[in-house]
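Please predict the structure of the following assembly.
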Amino acid sequence: MSAIIQADGLEKVFRDFWRRPRVRAVKALTFEVHAGEVFGLLGPNGSGKSTTMKMLLGLLHPTAGRLTVLGAPPRDVRVKSRIGYMPEESSLYPFLTAEETLDFFARLFPLTAAERRRRVAELLEMAGLTHARHRLVGEFSKGMARRICLAQALINDPDLILLDEPTSGLDPVGCRQVKDCILALAARGKTIVLSSHLLADVEDLCGRIAILYNGVLCALGGVRDLLEEPEQMQIFLPALSEDRRLPILAWLRDQTGVEPRWDHPRRNLERFFLETVREARGRVPDQTGVRISEEIRLAPFLSGSRGET
Amino acid sequence: MRSIAAIFQLTLRSLLRSRFLLCVTVLALSVVILLPLTIEDDGTVSGRVQVLVRYTLGAVTFLLSVGTLGTGPGLVAGELESRRLQQVLVKPVRFGQVWLGKWLALVTVNALILGGAVLLAHGLMRWTLRESRLTAGQIEELHSKVNVTRVALAPEDVLLSESEITANIDGMIRSGTLHSDVPESAARMTAAQRIRFERNVVPPGGTKRWSFPAVRPAPADRPFLLRVQFLSSANEETREMEGEWTVGEPGRDPAFRSRVRLRAFLPQELVIPTMNFPAAVPLEVTFRNVEAAAPATVLFHVDRGVRLLVPAGSYGMNLFRAYGLILFKLALLAAVGITMGSLFYTPVAVFTGFFVLVLFGFSGYIGWVAETGVFYVPHDHGAPEIAVSGKIVQALDLALKSAYRGVDRMLAPLRDLEPMERVAGGERILWRDVGRGLGIMVGVGCSLMAALAIGVFRRREMG
């Protein structure tokens, strides 16, 4: 697999007015992101996730090290035309409607008027905002603003999508839909880098992750490899009565020399919540301002990735 | 081009929703309507026009300058602080395109507001000066002086000779008005000024002569005007002085001769009736100080003592050219504002922009200091005195003077292209001046600002 992002010994030092080093936000960061993978940047607040993201976008200059995105420096205009970015805060122009917002961002790319209109309509549909297309985004709820923000990041059918805290501010339904959208994009071959401190989201979405702490890369690898505990194992069985369970546990104790633990598995809270809401939706009229189908349907123009660098 | 158009439209919408700019617009249009009611004119039609044009358009220009410099920085700095611009700059857009789109939008808004104000001022002037409200004399003044613009011809300059300057310096040193240790350049400058003043002094009974380049004869309904401005030694600013004026071809009997009383201090105009000469001829103007009641010396203004105003076009077109020059200045201020916003945070950018506006406002003073030096002390009576002594003070003076000269070099073209006085006084603004304004203020000034913004922004980080 070819590398879409290559960071080698990346450093970022923020300086004060007199050029004295103030904060060393990223230190000797080396990683690669390959075509078609969902890569997660994890870390507590102030760990350097957003700084790294901004260096990937060319908004910040690395103090040292080498960084290439899609085979070129991040500030290259050709690179920017293949990137989609969803910022952590939905900083939109409040005096534009949802449709005008997407149209404005579309006009920054070489698209014909007809193609622009088609993409805007498809993305509004995908974000569940078709009925709100004439509303000013300044009047949107945070969740609606996040959706329009994600939509604008996809307007150019990007090969590389950078998502900064993509689910922040969304309710669990919205979170699930955004996550489904990310997975659907990944299935179409898009390369996705997301930063988050919601570990469950990252675990759901990412194939590989990097964990940063205080600007230093502490862990890098596949989620499965990093989380697996090879010295233990779990066996799933249908629920057993006590008279059938006890001999099995005794046999396991004899075989392993340790006391085996057992429990009933719990449902995932997210899944339980979504099921409850789905049931309620049939009974109570929707007033959330967002109308979206159960299953995420990507905008048709979001083709498979144009591929490698 | 498509990106520039998108940013232009977005910025235009943002500006049209700006409350600050709305206040400026309301204030500007109110000024056009209300200011003429509060300012007293001299009762003449041309005086009325001067008030309407000079004060209202001057105030509107000032308000729009403030509006532009108050709004421009926020278009970049404000959007960076709200993180909206970052979302634009991660798209395939160069900062130069963002700068241009925003600048065009700000200039468009200025063009619209200024255009509205100029049209309103012009309409009000036509309404208040409608013929049904004027006397026959005022109607004639309206047609011959107000509706016509004129080219102001300066008299041919009589060069200062080397020997004249040297003799003057010697005389000042002998009389003790100039210290012998004053640097030569300062002494020469003082001497040159003294000579220029002396040449414009006309004692009681004395005569002063000016030569003008060849001019064509004027049509009967559009006479020449002679604009004069002088001071009286009687030290009464608006005192009337009697003088005999003649205008004619050199070496011949003057075609025009008039004995009139004119007020000191203010610019005054003499109407020169049509003279019968077949083709373009050079003219000679003379003044004889014939004040008998209370004889006093007359000192003509060194730079604009006498001007021959020759008819050359209509008032409406002149106002349009003035509109162009004012707009170019606002375009330059828009460029300054947006560039400052590209370099600094909003408060610093606004402050820096207003500092540039102050420089524009004090350009006359800066020009004066650049010429005379920082430690020049004008004497109230008699010859000027220079308080430059001691090597440190002299060095400081030289350094500051160089700095002032640098600023003055940048501001001088703008000062020369200031249209307000000219349009108010019925003096023609040439298309050449409009072209120069476009070239200097938009072509050079705005391009430099854009280059500075783009150059610095390339290194700027957006956290």
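The domain at 152-313 of chain B is CATH 2.60.120 (Jelly Rolls). Confidence is low (pLDDT under 50) at residues 378-385 of chain B.
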